[in-house]
Queue: 3 jobs
Job 1
Amino acid sequence: MLDTIAVGEKEREQGVVFLYEVPILDEIKNLKNPIPLKIVIDENNSLILVNNGYSILVVCNNLVEGLQEAALQFADDFMDCTDNSLPTTQDARELGEKLRGSVWL
């Protein structure tokens, strides 16, 4: 898996797109504030969408695919980091709080 920090250091940022909604519990939920995703184009012309604060890293062929995958990554992390029945680290709990606070539930 790519290191999100290394992506920003090795490649040039080409722009930013925003994630506005995510699938949570089989419903599309709006985010309280759009999440910016840096766009990096790698040497193979693949797009890399990155947001270090939300632990999102997507490698894709087009923006539609990338935004869908970013939303699914957010949703997976949301479910994993906010499920109190699962053992989690302090970092995971903090990410879960950040994710929960980002979504209009």
Note: Confidence is low (pLDDT under 50) at residues 1-5.
Job 2
Amino acid sequence: MSCLLLHDSDPRYEYDDVLSEKDIQITNLPVLQVTFLNRDHSSDYSLGKHNGIIVSSKHGAAFLIKNKVNISGKTLAIVGPATAKIVGGYAEQFDDVTLVWEENATLLSQTILSSFPRTYSWVFCCGNKARVSGVLPTALKENGVELKHLVVYTVEKRRDFDKHLSQLDVSSFKAVVFFSPSGVEFAEGSLSGKLSPSCVLVAFGKSTAATLTQCFGDKFVISICEHPTPLGEERRLSAVSVESLRRKVFSQGREVRPGKMEMVDLMFIDDLV
């Protein structure tokens, strides 16, 4: 069986060994070009006056690390376990850092509103594709919480994506894996009319799966989520206890039907196609 992994940017080769063990032939192809904005975070970004920093993607997390942003005394509110692992590792270097993470933006907005004073001010380190009218910004705004959008990176379709895709027999792939909503949006037109009718579309995360369903409604769509081990009901932790975030627990779906999203482990993909 052959599988096409359409990565956000740099390929995630850690999946190759797992899939190769099940005799799945892997083709890695990045979709996105990520560019970090080169600014002086100490002045232009004005992170110092904000009580908390919101990060919803691995690219936002990479901005903090790349610019060595001082997060001492800050609260970091994070969307998604994968991003939480990245930020958690970076936070170990600083004192008095509070990390709060939730599975999605809706849950994170609820946690922020229920756990922190409305007088807290937040800065959202995001990309150029972030929606000002998104779930989290809207919830905070409606409740009088100060939130500043700070675009720290841009994403665009890789200029060489179509060239490399044209060199592949796309119809031969039994499964195509996507890693972000932007990856789906940028690849949709390029894949149109080229996929096999029996091809399974796989999404990492519910947001990616929702975008896949919207763009390819007549296809099998499987959603894969990676969950860190639960860290208590409040999902709060100190910077010194972030090692717990490194453990992953997978949920496996048993039934897959057209148009229905199921939770599965990527290792079981060959049982579904």
Note: The first strand starts at residue 2 and ends at 7.
Job 3
Amino acid sequence: MRPATTSGRTLGGPAAAALALLLAAAPARPQDRALVPGRMGYNALPAVPNEDPAVGDDVLVSLQLAAQAADLSARDAAATPYLRVEVPFRGIAALSVDAVPVELWRVTPATQRRLQAASTRGVELGDVRFGARFLLVSEAGLRPALGIRLLTKTASGKGLENRRFTAAPAYLGDLLLGKDLASWPGGARVRLLAKAGFLSWQQGDGWQDDGLDYGATLQLRSAGGARLELEWRGYTGYERDDEPMLAGLTAGVPTGPVEWVLTVNRGLRHEAPPWEVRAGAVLRLPSPWRAR
């Protein structure tokens, strides 16, 4: 945890414009060091899923419905649609935008008191994130593929008085690794993905929480394109209640250009949603900027 600064350097040109836009999107307000995942709603500061450094050739359009709950009784629960679009460029870069358009939520009076929320239920507008992923080193022989991912969360999320979203920007930079552990004719393979990086989010005017982002995924893919993934991810910050960690299992089955996806996540620390289920589809479209 430390004050948000620019290390005494003067920014100019596009960097100054980008910084001004972000600051304008996040109105100044007093420091709030309770803006941590363990004292916010389930979708406020989630651990970001792992990604492969290798960039594909298809435009990906994802639509999912997600539900989080404290237990089977769903006393503390949230539900939201999730949208994501990724556009690749020549197999070396991909730009993405994803959003939680709206969140429906409810909590018990005990959770309301713990979070210091104004209400026990409601509907809030969610966050929008913009990302870029770059392949730095292609996989070859024993050498893994390496890449970087940059992600910015805008201050679009509402409901700060109910502790649902932070109404402040966040930034993520990850080093990505991908390596086939085994492969067979026809395209079947076992692949390992890993990430390590730096995460930072604003906690009111002039203060931020910093954290180490981490994760790993073991991916099994059949010759027909079906996949099964076991994922572990999380991050560790410098405040209290800011170390969400979860494990998840994802199954994907393709039917033509559409892949049907089901994910079940289990929180391993109290800062992550205890249970999360995601179901939806990913549409693959040919990109005009395919790798040659």
Note: The helical segments are 13-25, 109-115.
